[in-house]
Structures are given as C-alpha cells and as structure tokens.
Amino acid sequence: MNRAARPLRVLVVAPSRYPLRQPHAGGLEACVWDRVRWLRTRGHDVTLCAADGSDYLGDVPEFRLPTPAWTRPEESSDTDYPLGYAGAVDAAFEAARDRLIADRHLYDVVDNHSLHPAPIRWSREAEIPVVTTLHTPPLEPLLEAAGQVRDSPHRFVAVSQATARAWSVEGVDAFVFPNGIDTEQWTRGDGGPSWVWSGRVVPEKAPHLAIEAARAVGAHLVLAGRIGDVDYFEQEVVPRLGPHARYVGPLRQPDLCRLVGSSAVALVTPMWEEPFGLVIAEALATGTPVAAFDIGGVSEVLAGMPGSATVTPGDVVALGKAAAELAARGAREPLTRVWTRRAAVRQHSLAQRYREVERVLSHTAQPVAARRAPAVSW
C-alpha cells in the first residue's frame, strides 16, 4: 500500500462505553479500531482517546476514558449507565480537552467518533479542526454541540445518505462517507446449511425476529454477538432458542468470519433507523447472501449486491421466504458467492476509501497546516 503524501498527526476519539478490542462490542467499535490501525499503516501519527483497556492506547493518561462499572452483570446495558458514570465521562473529556489545548501544536486534526458532545466543541475550545462522523440517528446533546461550532473549523460526515438526511432535518449538514471493512480479513467462505445472524443482541437489532423468520421456513439459525440488553435476551431470545436456533456468544473477527462464511444466508433485522449496518458488508465480503429489513441505510449498503434481498421491516414471513430463496440459489449456483464477494470488495473495501478518508482529514486540517507553515518574507 502506498504511503500518504503528507503524514497527518491525528487524534482519534472513540466512543467511551466499551474498549476497542476484539471481540468488538459492536460495529462502531470495529470501525474505529480499523480506522486507527489503517491510518497508522498509511504512515500517519495517530493518538487514540478511548476507553481504558483499548488496543492502541498510548501513554497519555488524559486520553484514557472510563468504562462503566456495573454492580451486577445482569444490569449492564447499551442504553443506560451505572450511577456516577456520566459524570466521570464528562470529567474525563474535560481533562482530555485541557491536555489537547496544552498540546494542540502536536495535532493537525481530531477524527471524532464519540457519541459524547464534548469532542465536537473542541473545534471551538481548542481551536483545532475536528471531523465528526455521525454513526447514529440524531442525538440531542450532539445537536446542541453542533449548533455551538458553526463558525469553527469543524466538518460532519455521515455513514449513509439516510443518516445524513436525518441530521439535515435537524439543521446539521454532513457529507456522506460510508463505512468500510477490511476485505483482507473478511474473506470468502464456502457456505453451508445453517443461516446466521450477528450483531449486538439488543431490541433495536431484533434477533428474535431473525429466529422467527428462520423457524417459519424450517431453517437452522446460529446467532453470534454481545448481549447488550440482558432483560431482552432473557425474555425474547432465550425462549426461542432450541433445535432451530443456537446462540454462540461474541466471537473474535477470525471466528466470526468463519461462521458467517460457512452459512447459507445472513439475516439482518434492524427495527430502528439503522445508520449503516456493518454486519451486512461483512457478510457480503464472505460471499454469504443477505436478507434484511429495509430500513435506514440498509438499502444503500445492499445497492448493487447480487446476493441480497430486502423486505418490509418486521415481516418475518417475507424475510424467511427471501432468505430461503437466496440460500437455494446459492446452493444451485455456487459462483453466486464469488460474484457477491467481488461486488462487496468493490463497494465496501477500506482499500477503496483510504484516499477519501485522507482527503477529508487533510482538507479539514489545512488551517493547522497553515499555522505551522513558515512565514514568507518579500
């Protein structure tokens, strides 16, 4: 891979809830982990601000964010925090900001993926360019922060057209920059008899509907992913497990790739405005066809993919039928997996997007580059 023309000094800010390490807590953490690894491979000087316990963390204590400490494991949640955690995160971001202000000559740009409003305001408070990637539907604290930096060196990018439209309605305009995956790690598999569902086990991802869809046509489903809502898992998923459905827990990337690649079809069942759906791109890269609910950015990720089908969100009967047809086609036409893999590499590979990533970061960092440039005398 060619090195960058001018290496950048980048502070990457990750979400604070979970460390960046495998098995990844979710698609967002996987994206940021890949971003740090890839930028460093490209020759950029990258510092990471992330949850304690993350890979790639340096020795700057102010850039280590606290993780939630739950009294009981069954209380852990992707939507709530334990008592006192929100205040601890606020204090950690204040310390990170102060360190950034003191050392802002060491950085060209902030690459912000946090769901906390503080890093957005750093473009004003630390006078440093910030690129904020919008990975979710609009969040009120982030909207408020966005309104405070309109005259600052700040740029928003969104992971899909659907996400950009949702933020635009709220007054925040963003360039569309879809997520990518490492297609050298997500390799083609040979398929198999079982179906697969992967992702965070939470109500908005609705794996229980994937079980219902598979059961409706007599298919066997394997579910993989971290439990993000224990009550939901116990009430909606566990009772549906049995001969037709098996849960294998969270898997590291190589193991997850083997599971997805050895499956006949992948089900994707969001019941919220899915911003992107990284599991879709991952499955397609293994050659495994995808049947999904058509909501949010899902149809954008599947656009032009030969092994794919979408149905109305919540329609488990239609989903089961669509998945069965894709699985049957794959069994009849083995080359379908090859074509699916090739299309996914063209559309979703990180290698296809690295110049765009660097272009956005470099263009946003220009004010800092100008300040560093020596004065010209006439």
From TrEMBL:
Domain Glycosyltransferase subfamily 4-like N-terminal per the UniProt entry, residue ranges: 26-185
GO molecular function: glycosyltransferase activity
Protein's UniProt keywords contain Transcription: no
Gene3D superfamilies, per the entry: Glycogen Phosphorylase B
Pfam families from the UniProt entry: Glyco_trans_1_4, Glyco_transf_4
One GO BP annotation of this record: carbohydrate derivative biosynthetic process
Superkingdom of the source species: Bacteria
SUPFAM superfamilies: UDP-Glycosyltransferase/glycogen phosphorylase
Keywords: Glycosyltransferase, Transferase
Name of the protein in its database record: D-inositol 3-phosphate glycosyltransferase
